[in-house]
Structures are given as C-alpha cells and as structure tokens.
Amino acid sequence: KDMASEFVMMKTEVADELMSSNIYQEVIPNLESALVFADEYTKGPVTNRLILCYLNTNKNARTVSFIDSIRIANNDNVIYSEQKAEALHKMNKSEEAITELEKAGRNNSETYERISSEYIKRLNEQGATGKAYAISKNWVEKAPQSQLGLIYAISTSDALNKYNESDYYISKGKTLYPEEPYFVIKEAASMYRNKEYDAGMDTLRAWVESYPKNNELVSSYSAHADMRAQELLKENKPDEALDIIKYALELDKTNQELLL
Predict the structure, then answer these.
(1) Distance CA 75, CA 78 (A)
(2) How far apart are the C-alpha atoms of 149 and 187, rounded to whole Å?
C-alpha cells in the first residue's frame, strides 16, 4: 500500500509540474497509471487532473465517457457536470450541454452563461434565429436573474418581430437592473416604434444628462427629438419644435440630421 501511495504521489507531482507549464498530452499516461493505484483519498485529485488534461487536449468524447463511468461507479448522475457540459459544447452538442447543467442545478453558473451565449451567437451566425430565440427564452426561464440571458431574449425577440415578448423582457430587465442603460435604450426603441416620441424623450432625458458620453442613449434621444419636432411643425408649433431641437443639439452636437 505504501509503495502504491508513493507511486501515485510521484506521478501526481510530475503531472503538476508539467500542467503548470500548460503541458497536458504527456501528462495523461502518468495520471491514467496513477489512477489504477489511487486509494479513496487520492482518486479524486487524480481524476480531477485527468479530466482537465482530457479537456485541454480536446479529448471530448473521452471526457464524456470517462465521466459517465465515474457516475455509474459512484451512483451519482450529476458529478462533474460542468466538465461534461464543456466537453459536449466542444463537440457541438451545446443543447445537451445546457441540459446537463440544468439537471445539476448549475443554471446560474458562469459555465452555463458562457455556453448559452456562445451557442446563441453561433445560431445567429447560421441564420437560425428561431432556435436562438428558443434557447434565449429557456435561459431566462431557468435563470430569471441573468442580465445576459435577458439581453439575448430581447435581441432575439426583436429579430423575430415578437415585440410584446421583447417589451416583457425589457420590463423585467429594468426592474432587475435599474442602473443598466441597455434596458432604457431598448424601452426607448420600443416607444419609437410605437411613435411615442414625447414619452421616449421623457424616459431618456435624465439618462442622457447622467451619461452624456453614451452614444446609444444620445442617439436614441436625438431620434425621438427629431420625430417629435416634426410632429410639432405639422401642428404649427415651430417655437416648441425649435426648443426641442436646440436641446438635442446641445447633447448631440455632431448630428447633422437635427440641422435639416
């Protein structure tokens, strides 16, 4: 037993030294042989290192089968969920990866956020907007506090012209993150779409004064101001229209459209 322990310790020390230099491939045989002789105290640390080496050498199918064998041996269906999800994601099985993390109650983990966002980006690049929307919607259902999840839910809803759903997620975002300009900008965009220019200006005014260098906020305010001024001109109220444009120009000095 002592010789076995010394053997495992020696192999582990060699592995640590190599892994500290980002050398993983050469470490795998050392760790696999160490695992054969590992006892109840050393098996876990050796296993952790071995899984890390498999992942860092893109042995993703091996990672999944290895973790599955550990689960059977330990009668534990959620152990190493993040590592298994990582491997599945790298195998382009991102939906399985997301389900894996949800099953283990890891919906609020950084891994869940990263895999979900990378998958949605990939779907958008492929033109699979409907699927991206479904994944975003599921994300917000499983992790209601996720700011990034809400942002994707809004953008994918907008892309499919599902504006009622977009407005719902915007409202949630404003409630959860009242200091985040993104949700105010999206609310203003919704008002602009509904031709609520006066309300849009009211919503944005305090924000553009607090964040005068936020180009999106300033541009959004200018767009509302421009349309509201045009309405006032049609109502034969040129002085009010001019006041609105003057104020908008103070905030957005280089906006040529406001001068037309």
Answers:
(1) 9
(2) 17
CA distances in angstroms from 133 to 92, 174, 238, listed in the order given: 18, 20, 44
With 70 as the cut, is the pLDDT of residue 189 above it? Answer: yes
SS (H, E, C) 65-101: HHHHHHHHHHCCCCCCHHHHHHHHHHCCCHHHHHHHH
The dihedrals phi and psi of 57, each to the nearest 5 degrees, come to -115, 15
**Cβ atoms of residues 245 and 258 within 8 Å:** yes
CB 32 within 8 Å of CB 59? no
**Phi first, then psi: what are they for 185, rounded to 5°?**
-60, -45
pLDDT band at 249 (very low <50, low <70, confident <90, very high): confident
Query: Cβ(191)–Cβ(159) under 8 Å?
Result: no
In terms of Cβ atoms closer than 10 Å to its own Cβ (0-12, 13-18, 19+), residue 220 is buried
Alpha-carbon distance of 64 to 70, in angstroms, equals 10
Q: Confirm if 247 and 225 have CB atoms less than 8 A apart.
A: yes
| Residue 116 in tokens | 């979900």
Question: Which residue from 2, 33, 31 is spatially nearest to 14, judged by alpha carbons?
Answer: 31
d(CA 205, CA 251): 10
pTM score, whole prediction: 0.85
CA–CA separation, 53 vs 94, rounded Å?
21
